[in-house]
Specification:
Layout (H helix, E strand, L loop, with lengths): L1 H32 L48 H9 L29 E4 L6 H7 L4 H7 L2 H5 L6 E4 L4 E5 L4 E2 H7 L4 H6 L13 E2 L4 E5 L14 E5 L13 E6 L10 E4 L13 E4 L8 E4 L5 E3 L4 E8 L6 E6 L3 E8 L1 E2 L6 E2 L4 E4 L10 E8 L4 E2 L8
Antiparallel strand pairs: 1-2, 3-6, 4-5, 7-8, 8-9, 10-11, 11-19, 12-18, 13-14, 13-17, 14-15, 15-19, 16-18, 19-20
Length: 395
């Protein structure tokens, strides 16, 4: 019995030894296929193992990569008083303290318009004036005058082409050989202002170069001659003045002539029984162009065919067509002054006729240098010079 127990124990022990040897062999074989990681001078990292009763994953603490620094003190944020907070929430907003900004439903970015650099040609349209065209292109009236033939400015009509510069200045047509320096001096600019403007084609030129006849030269910022926009027809009153009456009314004896040699001129006419202007020359008008020394009168827009009336008693010294842009025209001598009515469709008076204040003398029109129905009205002094109509009549 004892021998059998010993034999069984021996076999059990041998089996256990065989199992252990087998496990060791398996472990050794597994370690042969595991990647080897060499860690020099680093502490051994032990992986956490699960226990029979714990299932939570152990937390891995990350090592910092920067040197440790002192932790900044954190100031606690203020909190509102609870009573004040409740009151503020309950109170409606005071909208008077705010500015409401209206937003377009389709907002877009507004880009500035690029500066124009080319020269344009504008065709005069019905109803346009020199001032309106200048305003349309952002130019001065003088720029239009200094950039176009004087004929166009004195006889502005629908369909006429006008040169429009990209900036204020002048356009000079060379009529005789002239140096760039002399031309610049004439227009009060530096010679290189002319040379450097690309469209002049003068690159490489010097102020001493002579410009050829017929060349059009743009002069940025140039200042031309200060001359009237309208040509002054010859006119005069020969005064052997005798007056009676009171206030602005008087009786005169003398002679007058206006635009002698023109188709509508009456030549020298005796004048008498005149009175100063006191009646408006037309009714239902719109003052579209007021008096300036350059313009010389007032433009009164109206309906084609409206009555034109004498502003005072006087003698007709011009009745008919003028060749300087005023179209069909009437001039009345009142004594020391004359009244002028231009751009009419026709008149109802004749040379030497005596007219009275308010009498119909013609019809409002658009003849001559006119771009629409209107009356150009002027007051002239005894020497033919223009006077401000506002000094005589209330508009």
């Amino acid at each position: 019995m004892d021998v059998r127990l010993q034999s069984a124990g021996s076999r059990l022990f041998s089996g256990i030894i065989s199992i252990i040897a087998m496990l060791l062999a398996i472990l050794a074989l597994a370690m042969m296929f595991m990647p080897q990681t060499r860690i020099d001078s680093e502490p051994e990292v032990r992986l956490p193992t699960a226990t029979a009763t714990a299932t939570a994953t152990a937390t891995i603490t990350l090592m910092p990569t920067l040197e440790p620094t002192a932790t900044a003190s954190i100031t606690p944020l203020p909190t509102a008083d609870q009573n004040m907070l409740a009151t503020s929430v309950a109170r409606p907003a005071d909208r008077s303290e705010y500015v409401v900004v209206a937003r377009d439903e389709s907002p877009f970015t507004i880009n500035p318009s690029p500066q124009r650099t080319d020269i344009m040609i504008h065709t005069v349209q019905r109803g346009e004036s020199v001032e309106a065209i200048a305003e349309k292109y952002g130019l001065s009236v003088n720029t239009l005058i200094w950039s176009n033939r004087r004929f166009y400015m004195n006889a502005l009509q629908v369909g006429f082409p006008m040169v429009i510069l990209p900036f204020d200045g002048a356009l000079h047509n060379v009529q005789e050989p002239i140096t760039i320096a002399k031309l610049a001096e004439q227009y009060l600019v530096d010679p290189y202002v002319i040379i450097d403007y690309e469209l002049n084609g003068l690159k490489g030129a010097t102020p001493d170069n002579i410009l050829p006849i017929g060349l059009n030269v743009v002069i940025p910022g140039g200042i031309g001659a200060w001359e009237p926009l309208y040509w002054e027809p010859p006119a005069s009153v020969y005064a052997n003045v005798e007056s009676s009456g009171s206030g602005r009314t008087a009786i005169y004896n003398g002679e007058a002539v206006f635009g002698e040699g023109q188709p509508g001129s009456c030549g020298v006419q005796p004048i008498y029984n005149g009175s100063m202007p006191s009646v408006l020359p037309t009714r239902g008008y719109v003052l579209t162009n007021d008096y300036t020394p350059e313009h010389g009168g007032v433009d009164l827009a109206g309906t084609l065919g409206d009555y034109v009336r004498a502003v005072g008693d006087g003698t007709v010294i011009f009745a008919g067509w003028s060749t300087w842009g005023y179209g069909w025209m009437v001039v009345i001598a009142h004594g020391p002054v004359m009244s002028l009515y231009a751009h009419m469709t026709g008149d109802t008076v004749w040379c030497g006729q005596q007219v009275t204040a308010g009498q119909v003398i013609g019809y409002l029109g658009s003849s001559g240098n006119s771009s629409g129905p209107h009356l150009h009205f002027e007051i002239r002094n005894a020497g033919g010079g223009r006077e401000n109509p506002h000094n005589y009549l209330s508009w």
